[in-house]
Design goal:
The complex is a heterotrimer. By secondary structure, chain B is mainly alpha-helical. Chain B contains 7 helices and no strands. Classes of the chains: A mainly alpha, B mainly alpha, C mainly alpha.
Chain lengths: 249, 185, 82
């Protein structure tokens, strides 16, 4: 079996390596990907269209808004699926976890976590809000926010973290994130545009259509951040306890 | 040996000019091999992640342009940045309107489109990794192992005991009873 | 030239780290080595100009996915057969 697998993998690799020789040269300005009219349009016109300096955020939240919305839905569904998969079946027999030690929350660890968690959360909000002008955005800020809750769970115990952010509230927050995203899209329809066509929001916001797109992107990123942070914490909470939501690491 | 480093030889084409693309092929092979041949399910998942990052490496590599900077506007193209040349103090507002900004040339910035596609792919990747890990936990709960060969042996055992593996109703009942009987023997 | 040699170094290290991560018997160590792989990838993307992707990889790939992997391994058997 292993021999067959090795031969097959080698064959696939050989074919791909042959194809690599026909690729355009490294960092070629005239390669098809660099010459594509779509990305050239993004590079040239993002500033005039949306006033956003970070091209990646503009493409992510505005030009390809549908894509990002459905990716957020995928993350939400994956979180729900992890919870559902681990709920089924009978309860596990008490395993002898030989490599696990019983411990009290350590003084140094808990105090460090106490100091560092607010800083992480402020940084997460900064990353989320500054996604327009610097690297960052909803996904990164949301994951950093979720990581701060995971840190609480690691420093004290999962019970402590779940007391502050129960699992039901996790999924509710994740759903609210998607509703914020879709709600902004629907608002665009009510303002006379198409779904996720933020320029039409200028009829409710006291700004120009370009700046309306700028601000709507922030709203969309906040929605993404809600969903991602809640689901990342839910993933950890479900997987570290095997769905029992008791004990934990 | 000297011929190997000549312009246009296969060696230069693969290992010097297109090393990124070559390493993407190697990482893809490693990931694929781990997914097929490794015995442990967690190792298979790590292989899956290696495969995924290989694809991402390929996408980010085609976005690179020579002489281009990162896809965030420099001050002279930034709609909110101060794009005035130094020394025009005091006349900022007037100059702002009289001098419309030039749209940047596409060759000045790295291609942002592959970055966007891969950014969402990474986040969805961790969500699918979590789902796969939860399935591993369920498998461990049902069979007590995550090694592929032991798993196959246990499945054979269940099939032998219930007669045929085609009748799924009986099979499911056998699954539910399985660990207790295993311990009794 | 400096960036190119850094690129070459990271690419070669990536292959080594991926192979080491798949060879180790202890799954926790394997996951930690996989975190090193993710950080190398993050460095590579920052070097190629994909700053947003690098940021995402640093938070998601090296951060959360490692935590989730290790959290799962503690609920499973820690030793792997291969």
């Amino acid at each position: 079996m292993k021999k067959v697998a090795f031969v097959m993998v080698l064959l696939v690799g050989l074919l791909l390596a042959l194809a690599v020789r026909d690729f355009p040269a490294w960092a070629d300005r005239n390669s098809p990907a660099s010459q594509s009219p779509v990305s050239s349009y993004y590079v040239s016109n993002t500033g005039a269209d949306t006033q956003v300096p970070n091209l990646v955020t503009a493409v992510l939240a505005d030009y390809r808004g549908f894509d990002t919305m459905l990716e957020t839905v995928v993350v939400f569904i994956a979180g729900l699926a992890v919870w559902a998969v681990l709920q089924g079946g009978r309860t596990v027999r008490s395993r002898n976890r030989g490599d696990q030690v019983q411990f009290e929350p350590d003084l140094i660890v808990t105090n460090t976590v106490r100091l560092i968690v607010p800083v992480i959360q402020i940084f997460a909000l900064y990353v989320l809000a500054h996604g327009h002008v610097s690297p960052g955005g909803g996904f990164q800020g949301g994951v950093a926010m979720g990581a701060s809750f995971i840190l609480v769970a690691l420093g004290w115990s999962l019970r402590e973290a779940l007391y502050r952010f129960p699992l039901e509230r996790c999924f509710a927050v994740a759903g609210i994130g998607i509703l914020i995203y879709a709600g902004i899209g629907l608002l665009c329809i009510f303002c006379g545009g198409e779904f996720l066509d933020y320029a039409h929001l200028s009829s409710v916001l006291p700004v120009s259509p370009q700046m309306a797109r700028y601000h709507a992107m922030l709203g969309v990123e906040i929605g993404v951040g809600f969903t991602v942070s809640a689901i990342m914490f839910a993933l950890y909470a479900c997987l570290s306890t095997g769905g029992r939501m008791k004990g934990g690491l | 040996m000297i011929g190997m480093f000549e312009e246009g030889s296969i060696f230069t084409q693969l290992f010097v000019e297109r090393l990124n693309y070559f390493i993407y092929v190697v990482l893809l092979m490693i990931g694929l091999w781990a997914m097929i041949a490794k015995n442990n399910l967690i190792k298979k998942l790590i292989g899956m992640s290696v495969f995924q990052t290989a694809i991402i490496l390929f996408y980010v590599s085609i976005a690179v342009k020579e002489g281009a900077t990162i896809p965030i506007y420099l001050p002279e193209h930034d709609p909110h940045g101060s794009h005035q040349p130094v020394g025009a103090e005091g006349s900022l507002e007037i100059a702002d309107q009289s001098l419309p900004m030039q749209p940047p040339a596409p060759s000045a910035y790295t291609n942002p489109l592959p970055h966007v596609l891969m950014l969402t792919a990474i986040v969805v990747g961790v969500a699918t990794l979590g789902l796969a890990l939860s399935l591993c936990l369920r498998i461990y709960r049902a069979y007590g192992t995550i090694e592929e060969d032991e798993l196959l042996a246990k499945l054979e055992e269940v099939d032998a005991r219930t007669g045929s593996s085609m009748r799924s109703g009986r099979r499911r009942r056998a699954f539910a009873k399985k660990p207790k009987e295993g311990r009794a023997r | 030239m400096g960036l190119e040699s850094l690129n070459t170094l990271i690419l070669l290290l990536l292959v080594v780290v991926a192979l080491v991560s798949l060879r180790l018997r202890d799954l926790v160590v394997s996951c930690v080595v996989f975190a090193i792989y993710s950080f190398l990838m993050c460095l590579l993307w920052a070097e190629m100009g994909a700053v947003d992707v690098a940021f995402t990889e640093a938070t998601v790939g090296a951060g959360v996915s490692t935590v989730v992997l290790i959290a799962t391994v503690f609920n499973l058997r820690r030793k792997a057969k291969d």
